[in-house]
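Continued from yesterday's entry.
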Amino acid sequence: MLLLPTGMVAPTQRTVPHFTLERPTSTAGAVSAGAAPGAVYAQGCSDLFAQFREGLSCDTLVSLERVSSLGAVEWDGSTLEIGSGVDHHAGSRHPLVRAALPGLADGWGRIATERIRRRASLGGNLMARRTRYEMSVMLDALGARLDFETTLGPVTVPPDALWDRSEPPGGLLRAVRITNVPQVWFGYERSMRPLLTVAAAVRADTVTMTVGSEYTRPFTVAAPLGTDPAELAARLPDAVGDAAGTARYRRHVAGVLLGRLLERRTFEKGSPR
């Protein structure tokens, strides 16, 4: 046991109560097992032990490692679908992800450490709902959809629903889906992390920017392509600021980073294929 400066006692893995382990082999089986009271899904488990130490209650642990469909990546030339069980290392290097959205593959390939990247999954990154995790920032800007399977049928929500609800949607996160991919240019800037990260997606005549931070939930704004980056960043809400960085400062930095991303887009579009 570890005695914290506040006098609170932080539990270790040894203090985790006993639980029942379920190992389904299908999505339907996982949804059924996960519907039990006190059930918790487990994939890569890179964040799960931290949640246990923070007091997460678990009566049934539902391992998803045998649900092979959660590790699938599909690309039909228009829609990119990435299974929630795909880990960061495999996802960022997957040939279909790199072919469909090279900017996403590049951004995805730069998050976390090598040890974590080989265990942590896309679904775990999202469902942990930790502001310091970066996939929701990128997926918000891309207009992605999260496909859940529940006992009542499929449910689809945008990534920001994870922050707008007191609890995430029930059921199992099956996959992340990005549509109309050929129309999208995407870039990600994390040079100012943990203070600020910026994801930018250009689709047709609109640029969408999502700003994330280690300390605050992501926020998304959009404007016609050609809008001054500083003007677009000025539309970020006051809630983008906190004790680590005022809203004014974060808007300024976001505008600078967005400008860099749009310059990169111009360069890439002008480069010979």
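--- second protein ---
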Amino acid sequence: MPLKTFLLYILTALAEILGCYLPLLWLTGRGNAWLLLPATASLILFVWLLSLHPAASGRVYAAYGGVYVAVALAWLWLVDGIRPSLWDYAGVALVLCGAAVIVIAPRH
């Protein structure tokens, strides 16, 4: 997977996670309703970034899912302050290997 596509996957995942995290803060009383505005903007950015992927198909979205899992666990650590376990790292490695197989498999 080219570096540009991988970075696009990471940005897409960050936009999606932020767009879901901000409403969670509001719903759990850890933030006010104004958080819904940047959450909406983040989800709009997520959709736009998803449209920039070279070939919008189930295969692209499946590979994106693997990167999303890795970014979500990084978010868990950096934002929520919960250090991922060895099992989390193993799961991310498996998911990223699966995404790589989807992306680099020979096609006829």
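The two ends are 18 Å apart (CA to CA). The chain has a mean pLDDT of 92. Will compare against the first tomorrow.
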